[in-house]
UniProtKB/TrEMBL annotation:
PANTHER family: GENERAL SECRETION PATHWAY PROTEIN (PTHR30012), TYPE II SECRETION SYSTEM PROTEIN F-RELATED (PTHR30012:SF0). InterPro entries: GspF/PilC, T2SS_GspF, T2SS_GspF/T4SS_PilC_CS, T2SS_GspF_dom, T2SS_GspF_sf. It is a multi-pass membrane protein. This is General secretion pathway protein F.
């Protein structure tokens, strides 16, 4: 059934926009009039985009993860109440206020109504629905527990968003301080310091080393700031290119795991994501090898992914998945031991969920600790920079006072 974009007037004469599915444009107009909505313009959505994945829609549309999670939870509730899938999708497409998301839901409903599975319909939107999502929905459809799986997916997505928000919140303040502090120092050294040091330059006396360094630094920033900015941009894009190469990516990922203060937080985030994702996939009925393959692509670290690949090889040979994890420096002994206990007791899924909750709490604690270290460090660095400027200005003044005295 085609999907149409429409602009119309409601009973109060207010202009509204939305989407509607109907057999034809005339049927769409009649359907709108039946809702006391008077269409002004109706255009059929791009059929090609509906059939070939709609990557452009998912890539550029303003669809937030929180909105997707909310829709998934509502869909799980409707299915759990016994509402048919097509009817549930139709209700959701009318309720959501995001036009782009309305289109996606309507297109999914259209494909399901045509006989495709929900998994196939969701897979056409890879920017919105990850491989974890698709595989869990596939397992839910196969086992007849789609509502349970969707509810679990909504909870999983919400927890991931909460974790990301906490990490972003912890980094925003130090970054803000760095930017504002850098701008203040730039203005101070470039525009204010030269007016003060001009007096020293006219004294025809040997100036202290800190003062000479400050004057030269001021001249460089004032006359060549554009070159410094261009060099920084070139360096940034060069580093991005290097990180995009296999060797550069390995170095970058290793530094992320080992760097002071940030490294422990990154490792705990990876461990929490590993345990949470693997546990959710296994609980939803996805096979162990498929689950590990998905997790390997989600950890976003080549070193940890290599350990998971080795662990998959061990599982193929009939060995325990914890053999490779135990030998890796990235998986703590307690983490490996808890997974091993879960394997031996046959409760691997439940043990993984316990581990994920434990490490999510540790991530929160580590973020607070990281912030408590970064903030005073930034303040100390700013204090050192300002102190250097003040000292460089005061030293010649002290020398002049001594000569006068």
């Amino acid at each position: 059934m085609p999907v149409y974009d429409y602009s119309a007037l409601d009973k109060k004469g207010k202009k509204i926009r939305g989407i509607i599915d109907a057999d034809s444009e005339g049927a769409a107009r009649a359907k709108l009039r039946g809702r006391n909505i008077f269409p002004v313009g109706i255009v059929e959505s791009n059929r090609q985009s509906r059939k070939e994945g709609r990557r452009s829609l998912s890539l550029f549309a303003n669809i937030k993860s929180a909105e997707v999670n909310a829709v998934i939870r509502q869909l799980a509730t409707l299915l759990g109440a016994g509402v048919p899938l097509v009817q549930a999708l139709g209700s959701l497409s009318q309720q959501t206020g995001n036009i782009a998301l309305q289109k996606v839901i309507a297109q999914i409903k259209d494909e399901v109504n045509e006989g495709n599975s929900l998994t196939e319909a969701l897979a056409r939107h890879p920017r919105l629905f990850s491989s974890v999502f698709i595989n869990m929905v596939r397992a839910g459809e196969a086992s007849g527990s789609l509502d349970i799986v969707l509810d679990r997916l909504a909870e999983f997505g919400e927890n991931q968003e909460i974790l990301k928000a906490k990490v972003r919140a912890a980094l925003i303040y130090p970054l803000f301080m760095a930017v504002i502090g850098g701008l203040i120092l730039f203005v101070l050294i470039t525009y204010i310091v030269p007016n003060i040091t001009q007096v020293f330059a006219e004294m025809n006396r040997t100036l202290p080393l800190p003062t000479l360094v400050l004057i030269n630094l001021s001249d460089v920033l004032k006359h060549f700031w554009w070159l410094i900015l261009a060099s920084a941009m070139v360096l940034f894009f060069w580093l991005r290119y290097v990180i995009g190469q296999p060797a550069g990516r390995r170095v970058y990922h290793f530094v992320k795991l080992k760097v002071w203060v940030v490294g422990p937080v990154v490792r705990k985030i990876i461990l929490a994501r590993f345990a949470s994702t693997l546990g959710s996939l296994l609980e939803s009925g996805v096979g162990l090898m498929d689950s590990m393959r998905i997790v390997k692509n989600l950890v976003d670290n080549v070193h940890v992914a290599g350990v998971i690949e080795t662990s998959m090889d061990d599982v193929r040979k009939g060995k325990s998945m914890t053999l490779a994890l135990r030998e890796s420096p990235w998986f703590p002994p307690m983490f490996v031991q808890m997974i091993e206990v879960g394997e031996q007791s046959g409760s691997l899924e439940q043990m993984l969920q316990k581990v994920s909750k434990m490490y999510e709490k540790e991530v929160e604690i580590s973020i607070v600790a990281m912030t408590s270290i970064i903030e005073p460090t930034m303040i100390a660095l700013m204090g050192v920079a300002v102190g250097f400027v003040v000292l460089s200005i005061l030293l010649p003044i002290f020398e002049m006072n001594q000569l006068v005295g």
